[in-house]
Amino acid sequence: MPDIWRVYRIKKCRYTHPPKDKFVVIVCRDIECMGFLLNSTIHPFILKRPYLLKCQVMLSNSDYGFLFHDSYIDCGRIFAFEDAELVVGLELVNDKTKADIKSAVAKSKTIEKKYKDLILSNR
């Protein structure tokens, strides 16, 4: 069973168009594992919307050895993943990143309450 608070590499992620390899941090489990995608930049659409911008959490490549450059967790959109997709587990997120994710989720206007509750209650 995949770990909560671990970053995974997803091969040909079905949530990107076209599908491509992506990193995802798993933050809770409902029926399936739920997680946020990592991006190398913040999309201009998000930059223009403060309520979405406050849901971005930076990951420093100096803290996470698998990253080639600083990246951003988009905590404004949560996605379901099957266990079979989560086979390449990388690092657990550190306590600071976990706190930053929880803070972003608490402020989010786009994450359903049930997922907020699950994420905020996970240690």
Task: List key phrases describing it.
7-stranded antiparallel β-sheet; 123 residues; alpha+beta
Explain this structure.
With 123 residues, this protein is α+β, with helices and mostly antiparallel strands. The protein has a single domain, classed as SH3 type barrels (Roll), CATH 2.30.30. Helices cover 24% and strands 33% of the residues. It is built from four helices and seven strands; from the N terminus they run E-E-E-H-H-E-E-E-E-H-H. Strands 1, 2, 3, 4, 5, 6 and 7 form a seven-stranded antiparallel beta sheet that branches. The two termini are 17 Å apart.
Précis, in short:
The protein is built from 4 helices and 7 strands, in the order βββααββββαα. The chain is of the alpha+beta class and 123 residues long. Strands 1, 2, 3, 4, 5, 6 and 7 form a 7-stranded antiparallel beta sheet that branches.
Number of discrete domains: 1
- Proportion of strand residues: 25-35%
Structural Rg: 13 Å
For the residues shown, what is the average pLDDT?
94
Cα separation of the termini: 17 Å
The CATH topology comes to: SH3 type barrels
Basic shape? globular
Find the count of extended strands (DSSP E, 2+ residues): 7
> What class do helices, strands and sheet pairing give?
alpha+beta
CATH C-level category: Mainly Beta
Number of helices: 4
Main sheet, how many strands, which sense, barrel? Answer: 7 strands, antiparallel
The portion of residues assigned to helices is 10-25%
SSE arrangement, N to C:
EEEHHEEEEHH
- The parts where pLDDT drops under 50 for at least 5 residues are none
CATH architecture heading? Roll
